[in-house]
Design a protein that fits this description.
The chain is an alpha/beta fold and about 250 residues long. It has helices at about 25-30, 75-80, 120-125, 165-175, 190-205; strands spanning about 1-15, 20-25, 35-40, 50-60, 65-70, 85-95, 105-110, 130-135, 150-155, 160-165, 180-185, 205-210, 225-230, 235-240, 245, 250.
Length: about 250
Amino acid sequence: MNITENQIEEIKELEHNIHLFKVKSPEIANNINPGEFLNIRISELAIPLLRRPFSVCDVENDSFYFMFNTMGAGTKLLALKKPGEFIDVLGPLGNGFNIEDDFDRAIIIGGGLGAAPFPFLTRLLKDKKEIITLIGGRTKKDVITYGLENISVATDDGSLGFKGNVVELLGKKLDETGNVKSKIFACGPTPMLKALKILTEQKNIECEISTECAMACGFGICQGCPIQSAADEDKFLLVCKDGPVFNSKEVIL
């Protein structure tokens, strides 16, 4: 874990208010794993005070990419930055996806901006495993497919692809694709992850989920991002330190 000043190389607007930053940082690009995250200082001013956590979207040579939606004051300030400016980055942080398990098919599931960590994961897996990618959104405007492969889409309103949520689409796909040994990698809103946890436990499929939580320090000192352990209901894990990626059986959502 390091704090570094890193130069923004490129900025793209993928969709309305969805921004993709490319940042030069050999220290991070050469040491981060898919699913790990960075804590970024938004401004030199005292407000906003806290850093914001972002998944690494992809890695290319000595640069990393991260993606965000301009939802609040902090991300609106971040969106004003220009190529050539520098940002203060703390990371890599947390624990990412385990891609060394015994499986033949990776099923990647993203809900909305939950698609953000998966271009990097896809890059590492695509020459080794079969990949199926399922992306969900409320409408077609909420579907993000940047850097992904073999994609099927679900929208709540049916404006693109399967009409329904992405977990319902997964159930349909599992019925169609037989008994190939699969592992699921997922990121998205908590209701989606809850439904996914139920389905994968019913189907006995290994599933790792990337969870979200408000954070302060990002590395376990402040104890501000608890998630309940499934093994011991009196025990709480920390999203920043023990996660953000967990086996879905390890936590109560």
